[in-house]
Design a protein that fits this description.
Layout (H helix, E strand, L loop, with lengths): L1 E3 L2 H8 L7 E6 L7 H5 L2 H8 L3 E6 L1 E2 L9 E5 L5 E5 H14 L10 E7 L8 E10 H7 L5 H22 L9 H10 L8 H4 L6 E3 L14
Parallel strand pairs: 1-3, 2-3
Antiparallel strand pairs: 2-7, 4-6, 5-6, 7-8, 8-9
Helix pairs in contact: 6-7
Length: 222
């Protein structure tokens, strides 16, 4: 779990990492409904993700900065004091809009799932085929029993997917299947209101880089 003030911050951290792995962007403001369920567990998520997954909390930083004057303090990782800024959060969302085709911030907590890149051009993020989900909508519909339980299963799925790729062929990485990772995290939720395949067709919950047509049946567009 890492706090970031900008996309370049992710690139700098990813440059020090080896091998392909899942990257999860957590998009949540302290003022959001159910935000505490997410923010209270960032220390645990940091240590639980280990070496097979990177989690980034956008709009946050370890230190305060003169660039943003609206920072508030939260408890970070390993007893550190982190800072959050609405202005920074908006700046990062604007940067993501330029990189993520068809994505626009919903105004509610979201997860964006992608992977790192081995590019030599200084860009360590591979946004090809990214997936994203609406957290509060999933909780309201019963697709998640709780955010903490969902994340536990999601992190296990990230580990399995990455290790599976390593076992197949370390030299030639295949693209991580984000949908499979998310499906695994959902399918273990007790008392699901409908089959997982149908849940993944709910465009108010699950969206991909292909979700673009506002007039097409069963599609969703901001």
């Amino acid at each position: 779990m890492y706090p970031i003030y900008d996309i370049q911050g992710i690139n700098q951290i990813e440059e020090s990492k080896e091998g392909k792995h899942v990257i999860i962007l957590i998009i949540v403001k302290p003022s959001d409904k159910n935000a505490n369920e997410i923010l209270d567990k960032i220390n645990y998520f940091h240590h639980r993700s280990d070496q097979y997954c990177s989690i980034y909390l956008i709009g946050y930083s370890i230190g305060s900065t003169d660039k943003y004057n609206d920072t508030i303090r939260i408890n970070g990782v390993d007893g550190q004091e982190w800072f959050y800024s609405d202005s920074c959060f908006i700046d990062v969302c604007d940067s993501l809009n330029k990189r993520l085709k068809y994505w626009n911030y919903s105004g509610e907590p979201e997860l964006i799932v992608l992977q790192n890149s081995d590019s030599n051009l200084g860009d360590r993020l591979d946004f090809t085929g990214y997936n994203y989900i609406d957290i509060n909508y999933a909780l309201e519909k019963g697709y998640m029993d709780s955010f903490a339980r969902f994340m536990e299963r999601l992190l296990k799925a990230c580990k399995s997917e990455v290790f599976g790729e390593e076992a197949i062929k370390k030299a030639n990485w295949k693209r991580i299947k984000y949908r499979n990772v998310i499906e695994y995290a959902i399918e273990l939720t007790p008392k699901l209101p409908k089959p997982v395949k149908k849940i993944m067709n709910d465009r108010l919950f699950y969206k991909t880089y292909k979700t673009k047509n506002p007039n097409k049946k069963n599609s969703f567009y901001y």
